[in-house]
């Protein structure tokens, strides 16, 4: 029987190309490759008479760069499918697939957010990105925070949705207990239709209905590399109830679903206070953890408003 989720992938890929991005695989080092969706205009077209290369040369972006970093339950273009077309006119948009998502893979054993951040930075530099604004969702937000901390020369600013600086054991235990799950893997790596339904139930404000077959097909297509992803979840949790807050030099905009049950509004507001004057907060009503998918038009409007304001302030400097 045809997997419905796999069958619609070529359609999504086609829509992404129409929106202005296409896939490009980057070898970071032997044994480590990362897939990026890169701006169409950065891919050099072969000269007349030349054969089309499997790995075309990329040119540097000629517009401000926005990098969209996905969360744990889906790869890049699935997470950001409603944002890409809204941004590509004014920005060079890059959508990476983090390691063990969407074709990105490594033979290294490090599963920490720091390793994800370092690998992503290497990949971005290989494809000509020198400065960028990061938009990080959930797990991708934690990777984005680490990138901003370690590479302030690369990261100009950040927009963070449904994420935290670091997953301490106390936050992890409290969140899982409140949601009724025994472990992060039980929540974020469901292995049954009921498990996926439970994840969607806590991740969205409006309760969604899909036939069981669609849930089953999604599990088969999106939850690959289960062993490695379970290790990524283990690598997230740090044994520190009060982690040191890095001194970020970038502006950080927290763009949140006000009904987020995983990382609640109070957590976001508390994080804003800890981050200090460089941080701003904006809530989106009637949206849960998957805010960019539930309220895409409003999310895009808020995101573009921040980006415009940021770039205007850069020009005035």
From TrEMBL:
Report the residue ranges that make up the AB hydrolase-1 domain in this protein: 64-296
| Pfam families xrefs | Abhydrolase_1
Domain of life where this protein originates = Eukaryota
Task: State the protein's name.
Answer: AB hydrolase-1 domain-containing protein
Provide the organism lineage as a comma list. Answer: Eukaryota, Viridiplantae, Streptophyta, Embryophyta, Tracheophyta
């Amino acid at each position: 029987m045809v997997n419905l989720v796999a069958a619609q992938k070529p359609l999504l890929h086609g829509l992404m190309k129409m929106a202005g991005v296409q896939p490009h695989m980057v070898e970071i080092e032997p044994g480590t490759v990362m897939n990026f969706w890169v701006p169409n205009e950065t891919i050099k077209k072969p000269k007349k008479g030349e054969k089309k290369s499997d790995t075309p040369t990329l040119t540097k972006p000629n517009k401000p760069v926005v990098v969209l970093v996905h969360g744990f339950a889906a790869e890049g273009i699935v997470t950001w499918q409603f944002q890409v077309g809204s941004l590509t006119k004014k920005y060079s948009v890059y959508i990476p697939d983090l390691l063990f998502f969407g074709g990105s893979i490594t033979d290294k054993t490090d599963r920490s957010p720091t390793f994800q951040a370092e690998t992503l930075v290497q990949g971005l530099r290989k494809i000509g990105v020198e400065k960028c604004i990061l938009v990080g969702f959930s797990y991708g937000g934690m990777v984005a925070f680490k990138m901003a901390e370690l590479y302030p020369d690369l990261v100009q600013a950040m927009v963070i949705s449904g994420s935290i600086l670091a997953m301490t054991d106390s936050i992890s235990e409290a969140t899982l207990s409140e949601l009724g799950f025994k472990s992060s893997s039980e929540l974020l790596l469901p292995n049954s239709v009921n498990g996926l339904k439970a994840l969607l139930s806590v991740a969205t404000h409006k309760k969604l209905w899909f036939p069981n077959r669609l849930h089953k097909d999604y599990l088969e297509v999106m939850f690959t590399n289960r062993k490695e992803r379970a290790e990524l979840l283990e690598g997230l949790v740090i044994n520190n109830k009060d982690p040191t807050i890095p001194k970020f030099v970038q502006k950080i905009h927290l763009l949140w679903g006000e009904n987020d049950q995983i990382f609640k509004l109070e957590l976001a507001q508390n994080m804003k206070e800890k981050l200090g004057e460089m941080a701003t907060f904006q809530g989106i009503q009637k949206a849960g953890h998957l805010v960019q998918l539930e309220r895409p038009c409003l999310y895009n409007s808020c995101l573009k408003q921040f980006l415009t304001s940021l770039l205007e302030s850069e020009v005035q400097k």
